[in-house]
Amino acid sequence: MSRVFLVISLVLLISFCGCASKPESSLYQQLGAEHGIEQIVDAFINRIAKDKTILPYFAKSSVSHFRAGFISHMCEISGGPCKYTGDSMVDIHTGMNINEADFNRVVELLVLAMEDAGVSYREQNRVLAKLAPFRGEVIKR
């Protein structure tokens, strides 16, 4: 009888251990940490450079400044160790008169860049959810 009890106990213990889930890693880690975010941003910059509608918005921008700022911003919003210290979204976009269609195109380019970098749809959606609150600070400023 005690042997049966021991076997049942072991089976239950193994079953419960199998159900325990590991804590979910941060979005920053799921994006590939610093290297992964750099890949996303570089793919995004490459896509912007090829887009005749969006490129003019960046005509007066320093690519290296934009790259560093966007990497820092993505790192912070994804739960990474970075602290974004750049200008506010309002300050950056005031006077650019970004319309909704062009804003949506930039979002499309970011999604394509995340696909280029191998980011899963789940993580893409998590990134977009983190960026969505900034929408009102960007359009028609």
UniProtKB/TrEMBL annotation:
UniProtKB keywords: Heme, Iron, Metal-binding, Signal, Transport
Signal peptide positions (record): 1-20
Single GO term (MF): oxygen binding
Keyword Signal: yes
UniProt-listed InterPro entries: Globin-like_sf, Globin/Proto, Hemoglobin_trunc
Protein name from the UniProt record: Group 1 truncated hemoglobin
Annotated positions binding heme: 93
Cross-referenced SUPFAM superfamilies: Globin-like
The UniProt record lists the keyword Transport: yes
One Pfam entry name: Bac_globin
Gene3D superfamilies: Globins (1.10.490.10)
